[in-house]
Amino acid sequence: MIYFDNSATTVPYPEALRTYQEVATKIFGNPSSLHQLGTSATRILEASRKQVADLIGKSADEIFFTSGGTEGDNWVIKGVAFEKKPYGKHIIVSDIEHPAVKESAKWLSEHGFEVSYAPVNAQGFVDVNALAGLLRPDTILVSVMAVNNEIGSIQPIQAISDILADEPTISFHVDAVQAIGKIPVSAYLTDRVDFATFSGHKFHAVRGVGFVYKKAGKKITPLLTGGGQEKDFRSTTENVAGIASMAKALRLVTDKEAFSLPKIAKMKKIIFDELAKYEDITIFSGEGEDFAPNILTFGIKGVRGEVIVHAFEEHQIYISTTSACSSKAGKPAGTLISMGVPTKLAQTAVRISLDDDNDMGQVEQFLTIFKQVYAKTQKVR
């Protein structure tokens, strides 16, 4: 089996799974309990919080645990909007955000808020000048992802931060789900970023756990009320085993970056160069430092993406039709549409997303099978 769908989810590290099992079986107390089992759980919880904070260069009191990226995006977009409602009702999100952000913004537009969408250029990068032109006195929130999940374009977070430097009343949120472990933290957690969301299963932790970075002093409406956990912002019994597992996975993926990222980038480069030789191939992702090293999206002329996905699956090679969250809906890649790609062409798009678990032998096997798949599509092309 060759798994080239790591942007959808990653295989948990064995060490992360061992951590989960050990904590779940030995430190199973409720962190809110007063007895020793509860105290032990609290100790693990807070040690994990500090480790996560240290690894992204922030303070432990700025880290809040969630169930993943979708929950984090929903909480920040809606929580900031309602907290800052007395000061304005205007929100800006980029036109290529993940549905967790765009659908949250849409929901807010149905509840008294006004949403503007910052456009992107033909390469999939947010138009910074256009975004600046959308700012208004009543703007309370700007949300732009760090790395686009469909084509891998790295968004100009620093340039947007510069624009917002003189706008202290506007909260700046970054969806960093596809960024961590793939590009330097400094590229998307600038000093101007107020909130950022992360999901553990994107960096080899178990599913169902993530975290939000909330800059100290920034206001947001609580996500869940009840028992007072997570400083009253998310009241529910903490998933201590999952959190500890995520902290371990984050440390491992961070430790590996120096040698894993060049390896991943080299594999992408080989595939990119080979695909570029074919006449009826459109490559939607770019090369170089402006694109994530792990994501490569392309299409075969006249062939819908799902056909290609299943063709590779017959050979136990797993890729996807861009965003996993939208693939079963059969919709063309929203990012490509926003880039001005015609719908029919966008419907051909498939995404390869690589990881350190992959190797050159798998790349060679993929290219061999690709040659066969491409030949079989000749009549359609």
TrEMBL record:
Signal peptide: none annotated. Its cofactor is pyridoxal 5'-phosphate. Keywords: Iron, Iron-sulfur, Lyase, Metal-binding, Pyridoxal phosphate, Transferase. Residues 2-366 form the Aminotransferase class V domain. One of its GO terms (molecular function) is selenocysteine lyase activity. InterPro entries: Aminotrans_V_dom (IPR000192), Aminotrans_V_PyrdxlP_BS (IPR020578), Cysteine_dSase (IPR016454), PyrdxlP-dep_Trfase (IPR015424), PyrdxlP-dep_Trfase_major (IPR015421), PyrdxlP-dep_Trfase_small (IPR015422). Its EC number is 2.8.1.7, 4.4.1.16. It holds the Pfam family Aminotran_5. Belongs to the class-V pyridoxal-phosphate-dependent aminotransferase family. NifS/IscS subfamily. This is Cysteine desulfurase / Selenocysteine lyase.
